[in-house]
């Protein structure tokens, strides 16, 4: 069975794991064409360990049967049938996460997603959470806590750092970019 996943990391993972479940039931190998593009700017194997019955392929012949989509298989939606038990970080990524955590005291964390859901054509139902909701959360945390901010938006990172200073900790210092993805895929996984 061959699939090509479109969109970003979450959509790709959901599609892969749903079709992997289907492939295993049918006693097949799942071959995945994972393209590095603007929406997903890194490769699975740079971040996660290999998975049994899953192989990544470089290209396909136009005559081959391949499922091209971004949605999980309708019968095997991983959010309803099973969890990503086999998704394991590489040792390198684990070390980077531990190093980041070691630089913080007690902390709370926020994930403020902004960039990839701004296009109303791609995500018509997405309504971004107002920043005040996040500020209220931060203000309710113990004063001694650091705040780990996971974000995909340089403007958000700058706004939170301006408001809270050194209390805000991030996995990377972002710089302005015209690209849809303002962080690497590795940073997204670490966050």
Give an account of the 3D structure:
- The mean pLDDT is 85.
- This protein has 191 residues and is α/β, with parallel strands linked by helices.
- The protein is elongated, with a radius of gyration of 19 Å.
- It contains seven helices and seven strands, in the order E-H-E-H-E-E-H-H-E-H-E-H-E-H.
Furnish the topology, listing elements before pairings.
Blueprint lengths: L1 E4 L3 H17 L4 E4 L10 H4 L6 E4 L9 E3 L8 H4 L9 H12 L4 E6 L18 H9 L6 E6 L2 H11 L3 E2 L15 H6 L1
Parallel strand pairs: 1-2, 1-4, 2-3, 5-6, 6-7
Strand content: 15-25%
Strand order of the largest sheet: 3-2-1-4
Let me know the average pLDDT.
85
- List SSEs in N-to-C order: EHEHEEHHEHEHEH
What is the number of E strands? 7
User: How far apart are the first and last residues' alpha carbons, in Å?
Assistant: 32 Å
Low-pLDDT residue spans: none
Main beta sheet strand tally, sense and closure: 4 strands, parallel
Give the helix tally. Answer: 7
Helical content stands at 25-40%
Shape: elongated
Q: How does the helix and strand content classify structurally?
A: alpha/beta
Our Rg estimate from Cα atoms comes to 19 Å
